[in-house]
Protein: Transposase family protein
Amino acid sequence: MDNNGYRLLLPEGTLDYFIISDVKESASEIVIYLEEKNEVPKEYAGMKVESKVFYEPVVVQDFPIRGKKLFLNVRRRRWVVKDENRYVSRDWKLVAGGSRMTHEFASFLKELY
Structure:
């Protein structure tokens, strides 16, 4: 499946850190599956770091498209710092606090009220 067109539906900067791994589309919704790239966060670049596992996926709602709900199913990566035996992850601020929506969609809804 060619996922190239779906990149236009993503919040700005998302593809700097994620790849589109899959897209599922039905009559009522579109779900874009995103997987964090295996690129070590720059604050840990000088350390011995290895990608081990993913966090549980998080589903985030975004702007509806042509009458369909749009969801982003996001899999974030965890790395282990070998010398310290601790897990680290990228500081990712796409989700609006206290919600399951992107900042842009949450701001849009706030303006409606």
Observations:
- The first helix runs from residue 14 to 17.
- Residues 76 and 92 are 9 Å apart (CA to CA).
